[in-house]
Write a structure and sequence with these properties.
The protein has 444 residues and is α+β, with helices and mostly antiparallel strands. The protein is 31% helix and 22% strand. It contains 14 helices and 17 strands. Strand 6 and strand 7 (227-229) form a beta hairpin. Helix 3 crosses helix 12 (301-310). It starts with 18 loop residues before the first helix and ends in a 17-residue tail after the last strand.
């Protein structure tokens, strides 16, 4: 199949469910309450009622190991000269400027099914890492059987230290041994963003590490005298910007100051336009699922075999292939190449002719449809299965944290009762798994 043909939905080999699968479908433990969230994070149910699920998510250790290998392999392939030339050839000119930083909080999102983890997309400004690290301390075991699995509290403190060290490494990659003094956590109207509580948490965390941090609206930044400034820091220029904008190439007028500071190299920006172009543009899923192209670049057979197992086939939606793609649409998921937050995405079996015409006129990719994994949750006394994806937060190809997002509907959201972020507990897979009874995990 050449790169323009419609991807097919090859059936996965049927395998026995893992212990993690059985737990996710049987255990309805409530390990987090609204009071837990309020006491640990000071986030109220009135403003963020569905930010956190009330239960844990189980992932098998082999699945976690495959995710880790996939993230490392993808990041390594993204450094290949041929890959970078291809990625940057279609990106705006700003993406050709790079200063060394790798990009903090890369997010690799997976659906996990009988065929193992499948990469759905990569994000450069993946939110929620600090929230998930902090909420580990709030979850608790609901029954003695779960005690060995739910010792999550010890994971949080090393993670927070790793996050601070990551910002320092980004600074050093561009500015060497100079001292990192100031950080601006930047978004559009940050106080109005749904994950605004995380911005304040980053401000506190960095401050505790001796770094002056502010939360800033991008339009309030000022570029003058060869430096980036903000009114909240009248006597200090901004050394580093933690970028939470979804204007990935800084093209909007409101981001002109940040654009100038990035191009001048005087301010460290992370993540930045170049890492978006090489990792998160949806067209890169086409590249990563094109075995022939990767082979022509000298990618090893082992790496290509792993990518064939993990990256669903993805193609560009072209008018010349419209008939074939439309015929196969029920097995496909459609995404805009520069989209984010599930905006403008469609399951092929849900699209109308009107939407199809919009897709053809737009800039879309079609990805093999991969069903999400499911988690049983208790909502107002009733048990129901919610869809899930697994997000790997990573830096320089190394997974730092796994977290799950539970939801109902076509795509992930934070509007589902019982849904939201939940911690991931790794489960060893014994050679002979004993049946898991639902009653074993019922909350008291």
């Amino acid at each position: 199949m050449d790169s323009h043909q419609s991807p097919t939905n090859d059936a996965n080999v049927t395998v026995s469910p893992t212990v993690a699968d059985l737990l996710n479908r049987a255990c309805v433990c409530t390990t987090l309450t609204a009071q837990d969230v309020q006491s640990h994070l000071a986030i109220g149910q009135d403003t963020h009622p569905h930010l956190f699920s009330n239960t844990l998510t189980f992932v098998s250790e082999p699945t976690a190991q495959t995710i880790a290998r996939a993230v490392e392999t993808i990041d390594r392939i993204c450094q290949l000269e041929a890959y970078r030339q291809l990625a940057l050839s279609t990106a705006p000119s700003i993406a050709r400027t790079g200063w060394g930083p790798a990009g903090v909080f890369m997010g690799y999102d997976f659906h996990v099914g009988a065929g193992g983890p499948k990469l759905i997309e990569i994000n450069t400004n993946a939110g929620g890492a600090l929230l998930n690290a902090a909420i580990l301390r709030a979850h608790h075991s609901c029954c003695a059987a779960m005690d060995p699995l739910t010792n999550l509290n010890a994971q949080a403190l090393p993670l927070e230290a790793q996050f601070v060290a990551m910002f320092r490494r980004e600074w050093q990659a561009q500015r060497g041994d100079q001292v990192l003094r100031t950080v601006a956590i930047v978004d559009d109207a940050p106080a109005m963003q749904y994950l605004a509580p995380e911005f304040s948490m980053f401000q506190t965390l960095l401050g505790q590490s001796g770094i002056t941090a502010i939360v800033a609206d991008a339009q309030d930044l000022q570029w003058r005298d060869g430096a980036l400034w903000h009114p909240d820091l009248p006597d200090q220029a901004i050394d580093l910007v933690y970028n939470r904008l979804t204007d990935f190439y800084l093209a909007e007028h409101a981001h002109a100051a940040l654009n100038a500071a990035y191009l001048a190299g005087t301010t460290v920006l992370t993540p930045h336009p170049q890492v978006y172009a090489t990792h998160a543009d949806k067209q890169r899923l086409i590249t990563l699922s094109d075995d022939g192209l990767l082979a022509s670049w000298g990618v090893s057979s082992a790496d290509r075999h792993l990518l064939k197992q993990v990256v669903p086939r993805t193609v560009k939606v072209l008018p010349s292939d419209a008939e074939a793609i439309w015929t196969n649409r029920r097995h496909l998921f459609f995404k805009p190449t520069s989209g984010y937050g599930s905006k403008g995405t469609y399951r092929g079996d849900k699209i109308t002719k009107r939407v199809w015409n919009e897709i053809l006129a737009g800039d879309y990719v079609a990805q093999e449809l991969i069903a999400p994994n499911e988690r049983l949750v208790a909502v107002e006394g009733e048990n129901q299965l919610l869809k899930q994806d697994i997000r790997a937060y990573a830096y320089q190809g190394q997974v730092q944290l796994l977290a799950a997002r539970s939801y109902a509907g076509q795509t992930t959201n934070f509007r589902t009762p019982g849904g939201g972020f939940s911690p991931v507990v790794l489960v060893a897979e014994p050679k002979t798994a004993k049946p898991i009874e639902r009653a074993t995990c019922l909350a008291p």
